[in-house]
C-alpha cells in the first residue's frame, strides 16, 4: 500500500517539525497537520515565517518550501482524518495532575479523545500511528477503542516514537540515528509497517529504519529518555563531588568520555535538565514499574529525578549562600529562561524552579531570554501556584536587553546556554552591577579565570576558581 495522504493530530513541537520534514522530503504525499488550538494553526499559517509557533533553527525554510504545496495546517480535524490513509497521533501526554497516578502516570485523555475521534470520523480503513510518547501497552487501548465502534472499518496501529531534540529538530529529522517502527506480526501489521517504512525511506537509509513489535517500540522510547536523563543526573552528581574535592567536572567528563564504551555526549554538567519529556517519561516508567510491583526498578529510576531536583535547589542555595545568606530585596539577573538553547520552549525549565526558590526568599528577579516572551515567564511561575500572580509580577521583571537585566544586580545567574551570552561585553556588565558582582554560571559557558580578572566573584558547576 502506498500512502497518499497523511493527517497528523497535534501541531506542537513534534507534530509541526516532523510533518514539515515529511512533506518536504515526500512531495507526492499530502500532509495535513490539524489541531484544536486555532491560534496555533493561525500561527503555523502566518505569512511572516518568524511568527510560526515553534522556534527551531532551519524550520522556517522547510515550512516555506512545503507549505501550500503539499503541507497544510488546519483546524478541520474530521475532514482531514477522512481524507487520510495514515493518521499520526502527536498530541501532548503530560503527567496526570489529578486522581489515581497523580504526579506520576501519563495523562492519556488527549490520546483517547484522538482515538475516539478517528473512529467517529473515518469512512475508510486507516493506519494509525502513535507518534506521542506513550506508556508501554497504550496501543492496546487505542486498538480497543478503534475496533469497538461498530463501523466495520479496519485499523492497524503502529508505534513510531520521535527521538528529535528541541533546538536541533531539523538536523535530527533530516539525518536521524534511527527511525523506530513497531507493529503487529500479522500480514496486515507487516503491510502497515511497510507503508510507513516506505514513507521514511524517501530520505532515511533503509538500515537505519528499525522495526519491532509494538511493545518494544513503546518501551524503547521511554528507555531512551531514561538513559539520557540518567547520564545528566550522573554527571551532575559528580559535579557536586568535584566541588567538594577540587576536581574539575569538565576534565572528569572528558577523561571518561574518551572511553569508547562511555562516549563523550550528554556529559555536560548543568543546573539540571528540563524539557517537557525527561521527567514526565521517567515518572511514567516509575509508575508502570510500581504497577507491576517492580519496586526496586521504580526506585532506581526515581533517583534520576531526585538528583535533578537536588541540583536545581543546590544552585539556588549556592546563590543565597554567596550573597551573605540573604537575597531578600536583592536584584538577581537571570540570563536565559528556556530549558536549553535554540528553543522558545520553557516546559520544566530549571530556570522556573531556581526562580521559584529565590522568590520564596523574597529576591527580585529580572529575566532576559532572547526567545521567551514576558507572558510566558509569568505563566510558568503562576502555574506553580507558589504565590499570587500579583506577587510574581511585583518580584519578577522581564527585560528585552541583557544589559538592562544586569544593571544594578547583585548577581547574574546563567540558566540557559544561549551562544549570545558568551559574547556579551562582560566588562560593561561588571560596571553596571552592584559590588561585589557575582556571576553563577549554571551552564559552564564562561571562562572563570577571565571573569575573575574582570573583577567578578565567579562560580560554575563542578569546578572552582
Ligand atoms: P505540544 O503540547 O507542543 O503539542 C501537542 C498539540 O496537540 C497541542 O497543540 C494541542 O492543542 C494538540 N491537541 C491535543 N489534543 C488534541 C485533539 N484531541 N485534537 C487535535 N489537537 C489536539 O506537545 P509536543 O511537545 O509536540 O509533544 C507531543 C508528544 O510527543 C508527547 O507525547 C511528547 O512526549 C512527545 N515527544 C516530544 C518531544 C519534544 O521534543 N517536545 C520529542 C519527542 C517526543
Ligand atoms: C530529549 C531527547 O534528547 C530526545 O531524544 C527526545 O526525543 C526528547 O527529549 C523527547 O522525548 O522530548 P530535549 O528534551 O528536546 O530532547 O533536549 P535535550 O538535548 O535532550 O536536553 C534535555 C535537557 O537536558 C536540557 O535541559 C539540557 O540542557 C539538559 N542537558 C542535556 C544537560 O544538562 N547536559 C547534557 O549533557 C545534555
Plain-language structure description:
With 465 residues, the protein is an alpha/beta fold. 45% of the residues lie in helices and 13% in strands. The protein is built from 18 helices and 14 strands. The strands form three sheets. A six-stranded parallel sheet has the order 3-2-1-4-5-6, sandwiched between helices. It has a six-stranded parallel sheet with strand order 11-10-9-12-13-14, sandwiched between helices. The protein has a two-stranded parallel sheet with strand order 7-8. Helix 5 runs parallel beside helix 6 (138-147) and helix 12 (295-322) crosses helix 13. The longest helix is centred in the middle third of the chain and has 32 residues, at 214-245. The radius of gyration is 24 Å and the shape is globular. The protein starts with a strand and ends in a 6-residue tail after the last strand. The mean pLDDT is 96. Residues 9-15, 34-37, 40, 77, 90-93, 110, 113-114, 132-133, 162, 164, 166, 276-277 line the site of nicotinamide-adenine-dinucleotide.
What's this, in brief?
The chain has helices at about 15-25, 40-45, 60-65, 75-85, 110-120, 140-145, 170-175, 185-200, 215-245, 250-255, 280-290, 295-320, 350-360, 375-385, 390-395, 400-405, 425-430, 450-455; strands at about 5-10, 30-35, 70-75, 85-90, 125-130, 155-160, 180, 210, 330-335, 365-370, 395-400, 410-415, 440, 455-460. It is an alpha/beta fold.
Amino acid at each position: 500500500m502506498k500512502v497518499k495522504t497523511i493527517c497528523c493530530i497535534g501541531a506542537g513541537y513534534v507534530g509541526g517539525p516532523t510533518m514539515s520534514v515529511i512533506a518536504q522530503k515526500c512531495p507526492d504525499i499530502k500532509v495535513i497537520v490539524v489541531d484544536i488550538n486555532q491560534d496555533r494553526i493561525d500561527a503555523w499559517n502566518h505569512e511572516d515565517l518568524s511568527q510560526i509557533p515553534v522556534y527551531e533553527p532551519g524550520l522556517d525554510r522547510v515550512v516555506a518550501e512545503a507549505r501550500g504545496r503539499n503541507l497544510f495546517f488546519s483546524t478541520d480535524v474530521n475532514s482531514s482524518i477522512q481524507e487520510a490513509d495514515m493518521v499520526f497521533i502527536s498530541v501532548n501526554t503530560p503527567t496526570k495532575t489529578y486522581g489515581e497516578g497523580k504526579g506520576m502516570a501519563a495523562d492519556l485523555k488527549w490520546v483517547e479523545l484522538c482515538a475516539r475521534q478517528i473512529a467517529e470520523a473515518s469512512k475508510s480503513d486507516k493506519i494509525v500511528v502513535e507518534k506521542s510518547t506513550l506508556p508501554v501497552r497504550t496501543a492496546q487501548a487505542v486498538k480497543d477503542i478503534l475496533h469497538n465502534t461498530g463501523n466495520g472499518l479496519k485499523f492497524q496501529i503502529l508505534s513510531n516514537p520521535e527521538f528529535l531534540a528541541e533546538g536541533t529538530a531539523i538536523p535530527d529529522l533530516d539525518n536521524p540515528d534511527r527511525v523506530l517502527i513497531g507493529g503487529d506480526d500479522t500480514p496486515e501489521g507487516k503491510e502497515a509497517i511497510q507503508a510507513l517504512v516506505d514513507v521514511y525511506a524517501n530520505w532515511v537509509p533503509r538500515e537505519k529504519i528499525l522495526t519491532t513489535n509494538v511493545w518494544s517500540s513503546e518501551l524503547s522510547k521511554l528507555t531512551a529518555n531514561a538513559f539520557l536523563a540518567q547520564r545528566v543526573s550522573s554527571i551532575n552528581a559528580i559535579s557536586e563531588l568535584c566541588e567538594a574535592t577540587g576536581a574539575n567536572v569538565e576534565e572528569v567528563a572528558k577523561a571518561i568520555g574518551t572511553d569508547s564504551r562511555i562516549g563523550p555526549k550528554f556529559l555536560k554538567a548543568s543546573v539540571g535538565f528540563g524539557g517537557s519529556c525527561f521527567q514526565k517519561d521517567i515518572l511514567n516508567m516509575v509508575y508502570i514499574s510500581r504497577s507491576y510491583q517492580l519496586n526496586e526498578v521504580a526506585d532506581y529510576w526515581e533517583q534520576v529525578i531526585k538528583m535533578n531536583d537536588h541540583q536545581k535547589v543546590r544552585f539556588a542555595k549556592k546563590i543565597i549562600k554567596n550573597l551573605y545568606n540573604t537575597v531578600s530585596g536583592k536584584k538577581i539577573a537571570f540570563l536565559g529562561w528556556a530549558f536549553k538553547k535554540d528553543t522558545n520552549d520553557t516546559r520544566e525549565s530549571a530556570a522556573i524552579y531556581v526562580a521559584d526558590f529565590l522568590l520564596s526568599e523574597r529576591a527580585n528577579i529580572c529575566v532576559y531570554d532572547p526567545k521567551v516572551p514576558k507572558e510566558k515567564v509569568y505563566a510558568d511561575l503562576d502555574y506553580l501556584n507558589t504565590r499570587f500572580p500579583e506577587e510574581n509580577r511585583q518580584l519578577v521583571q522581564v527585560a528585552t536587553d541583557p544589559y538592562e537585566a544586569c544593571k544594578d544586580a547583585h548577581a547574574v545567574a546563567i540558566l540557559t546556554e544561549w551562544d549570545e551570552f558568551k559574547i556579551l561585553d562582560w566588562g560593561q556588565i561588571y560596571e553596571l552591577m552592584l559590588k561585589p558582582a557575582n556571576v553563577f554560571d549554571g551552564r559552564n559557558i564562561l571562562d572563570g579565570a577571565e571573569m575573575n580578572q574582570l573583577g567578578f566573584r565567579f562560580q560554575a558547576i563542578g569546578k572552582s576558581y
